[in-house]
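Bumping my old thread because nobody answered last time. Still need a sequence for this structure:
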């Protein structure tokens, strides 16, 4: 399970309306990419979905439960950030274990999950290192591993490749796609990069200035862009 329903979500910061009425349905197991120019509200929408930010109006339902009234530990969401957000003083292993320890997961179960996640993400050689002793790509894999061990039904990625160089971006993108195939979890992935959107998504949501311009598969958007903005952004002629 991991379906998401967003109903007429609006978000204002003071007088500035950043989300102007977002409606969206995400099915269990889908890989959905939010794409749009910098400042259009992608991160804000992701934070509202995660329950890190309250919407001004509207609702976010995960498997029918309103996120804003569900305690964080019960939401079944894990988020991966552009900046990794690892604890510098903890080893890779303890970065991955921390959230589970806090949730009272038994030690043997924590070991089991870290073993599986570190194998999936090729992190076994680095488990006793600290983040400063890792490359950017390795750090981002640790951040992804920390999300995986929580066994969320919904993964949220906010521009996870932005701080990596071109070669690592391709590798990490392929790893995320492989993770989706293995885990069959629902994933929402934010990017301003059209190539990432076209290669990863089952469904692309094109955002512009706080509104959805179009929702569709990569082929639908490419072949039948709804307007000039989508055509220009996705790169198809219209
Ligand atoms: P994106 O992720 O698409 O680049 P954001 O969601 O980060 O866009 O931001 C959308 C708009 O909302 C921007 O104009 C940004 O300055 C504004 N914004 C985001 N967070 C806040 C905040 N906490 N307070 C005030 N304005 C904010
Ligand atoms: Mg952003």
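Sorry it took so long. Here it is:
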């Amino acid at each position: 399970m991991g379906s998401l329903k967003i109903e007429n979500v609006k978000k204002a910061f003071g007088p500035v309306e950043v989300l102007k009425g977002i409606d969206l349905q995400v099915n269990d197991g889908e890989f959905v990419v939010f794409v749009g120019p910098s400042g259009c509200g992608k991160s804000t929408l992701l934070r509202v979905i995660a329950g890190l930010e309250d919407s001004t109006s509207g609702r976010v339902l995960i498997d029918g439960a309103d996120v804003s009234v569900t305690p964080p530990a019960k939401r079944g969401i894990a988020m991966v950030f552009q900046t990794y957000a690892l604890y510098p003083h903890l080893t890779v292993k303890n970065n991955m274990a921390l959230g589970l320890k806090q949730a009272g997961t038994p030690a043997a179960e924590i070991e089991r999950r870290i073993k599986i996640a570190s194998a999936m993400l090729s992190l076994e050689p680095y488990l006793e290192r600290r983040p400063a002793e890792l490359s950017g790509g390795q750090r981002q894999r640790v951040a992804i591993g920390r999300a995986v061990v929580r066994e969320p039904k919904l993964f949220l990625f906010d521009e996870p490749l932005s701080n990596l160089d071109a070669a690592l971006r391709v590798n990490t993108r392929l790893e995320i796609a492989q993770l989706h195939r293995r885990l069959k979890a629902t994933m929402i992935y934010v990017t301003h990069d059209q190539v990432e959107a076209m290669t990863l998504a089952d469904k692309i949501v094109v955002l512009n200035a706080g509104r959805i311009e179009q929702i569709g598969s990569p082929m639908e958007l490419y072949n039948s862009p709804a307007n000039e903005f989508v055509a220009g952004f996705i790169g198809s002629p219209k």
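The longest strand covers residues 16-26. Let me know if any region looks off to you.
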